[in-house]
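Lab notes, practical 5.
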Amino acid sequence: MKITMIGTGYVGLVTGTCLAEFGHHVTCVDKVAGKIEQLREGKIPIYEPGLEALVHKNVNEKRLCFTTDLASAVPGAEAIFIAVGTPTSRRGDGYADLTYIFAASKEIAPHLRGYTVIIDKSTVPVGTAAQVERIIHQENPAADFDVASNPEFLREGAAINDFMRPDRVVIGVKNDRARHMLQEVYKPLFLRDTPIVCTTVETAELIKYAANAFLAVKISFINEMANVCESIGADISALARAIGMDGRIGGKFLHPGPGYGGSCFPKDTLALMRIVQEHGESLHIVAAAVEVNAAQKARMVKKIRDMLGGSEAGKTIGILGLTFKPETDDMREAPSVTIIPTLLERGARIKAHDPQGMEEAQGYLPGEVEYMKDAYQVCEDADAVVLMTEWNQYRALDLERVKKLLRKPIFIDLRNVYDPEKMRSLGFQYTGVGRSLNP
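Output from the prediction step:
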């Protein structure tokens, strides 16, 4: 099939590349000429394990190409995916900003030739597909097309595997004609017996929001339980393991930490609440999860402050990990973006390292942050070290070396990577999140 992908951000680039790997001929379109030039030169603008090799392979086999010329990419395409950004509105009201979705729809319309399925791949509020359909009809009344919803469920750091071996594929369509086209797009997954959920467009649009909101609630719940554990002397690690063994609950997303971040959970929970409010309903549980998440980040600042004796002023703090999770360079809504500026404002000096996120971090963090070449340079002459993101290379640090480099042996483990008893036996003043044996 001939497929056009509008947008070469995280979702568009991964999806377009994987569809090319399926054997389709994919043209990825973006307005940012510099990004397209990078991609043509084989440079990948995002960090995602395995993506660079897959892009190179499919470009070399002439199934994948990149352009800024929408007018040449749309005619003849059987399926056109819209995978542009839907950030939180700049008004600060929590609504999803659909400016880019509507602009892409308007620009696609004049170039449609033959029957085409326009597919919303971006996370969008219920009713967006209807708006896209209205815009295209308005711009090109003669166009023969359908609009479908096909939300993505890609985890950063594991996106290629998630696309190639998904838990399910969600397809929201109005008729069999569009359904058959999307079934052809995903035919390789049909052959692997991947579950396909075929539903109405509106239900598909809501599914992605519901899934992300549920996971955000689960994270916020375990963080609240971690705080309870700290207060009563229980151990969140044992608690999470035990409740996760219940098949009705499951162990995923039961890992306490400094709060959720990234490009999806923060904006999607807010957008879902606004969608629901527009229809006269409410989501008290989701609203509570959002509140808990904000409070968790503030609680981490207090944890660091308490370990430093009640004040961070004049103290040097080493930060290990800046991105919101490992195996990505994504800094959007990362806990570090809230925690580090607060520490700086209170007079701390920050030395930081991240395996992939330091360049990206400079656009999110104050200029006073000092970026170090490795974890040990971060620890040198620091009054405390904070493990913020659980990258693999931080999981087996030379702890004796770390202790010698630190001015004071204070280790604040916001991801519960290390064993409290072992850390204290080595002479560290150690604290985790919700763990027993806290000092």
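Observations recorded by the TA: The first strand starts at residue 2 and ends at 6. The mean pLDDT is 96.
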